[in-house]
Amino acid sequence: MVGLRHKAAALKGLRQRLATASTASWATDPELLAVMVMLCLYEIVDDCSQQWTVHLKGAKDFIRLRRRQQQKTLTKTPDAQDSVSTFAELFFAFQDVMGRTACGEEVLFGSDYWAESERTIDLWMGCSPELASILSYITELSRTRRHLDSDSARAQFSLRAASLGTKLETLVQEVPNGEDHTLQSAAEMKRLAAVLYLHCALCGASPTTPLVASYVRRILRLVFDLLDSGSFVSITWPVFVAAVELDPAQDELWPETPHHAAAYGRPLVLRALAAMAESSVSNVARTRAVVAKVWQARDGDMTKGPPLDASGVSANCNDWEWYVAPISTAMSLA
Q1: Domain boundary assignment for the chain
Q2: Tens digits of per-residue pLDDT, 96-134?
Q3: CA dist 43 to 33, 36, 85, 89, 164, Å?
Q4: pTM for this one?
Q5: What's the burial of 186, exposed, middle or buried (CB within 10 Å: 0-12/13-18/19+)?
Q6: DSSP for residue 175
Q7: Considering 106, 171, 175, 267, which has the largest number of Cβ atoms within 10 A of its Cβ?
């Protein structure tokens, strides 16, 4: 109840400010964007419903108007305000691009938002802006897949997918200000998950594809190591991507050795989600619920027979579109 009262008061104050202040006044005020960030976070942590995306869309419109006004007045915001506004814009853009990977809906902050050649890992994102840009391109391209109506269009699609794959395979993300092995591991997990996402969303790969199984193991190996080190930061998205592409018939990740116990995919994912729930400002319960639904669907199809034919397509859906996207609307995976 206390949270609801504060939320209502914040919304009321935000609406009053936007309604009564001049555009020139609020366009240079970072406080409004900060309020939007907090409202968005509240909705994500509360129940991660469609409501948080309402704030996302509102922030997109606000940022567009704000930039337009600043261009008109040719004013520069003080450094302290710039840092707040810059982070707020980054927050919304990254929430958008990561969440849209799951559901495949249209990206609000498109690939043009990101610096394609910026390979320095952002401390909050846990990856480079270049990786975020590539993810945005993959999601945008995936939306065109089912509308390819000619051989030339399909060939062009394949070329673009291959080009994005090459960028991911050769991407080197740089740690700012020296060595930080945890940050480097988090960024590498996201890069590996991006490769996995590309092959599932664009190339018809599924859990039984050898490449998918290999990347799932590599991602979860890094997750395993980070969990043992006590670090749970910035692993939500790679854990999700690996989890939904686990093969239910082959859950063993690596066998027992004289020095290490055997590891299995689903228990490791559940362990990671439990650890994140204790330390993450996100809605891990929603992530776990979606993962569980995907697992249940795959388990059911093992007994009934796979819904996909040999080419990985059923009703023109690939594996990601069949199992993941329909139940992943409005997920927060940043």
Answers
A1: 1-103
A2: 999 999 999 988 887 778 888 899 999 999 999 999 999
A3: 16, 11, 20, 18, 33
A4: 0.90
A5: buried
A6: P
A7: 171
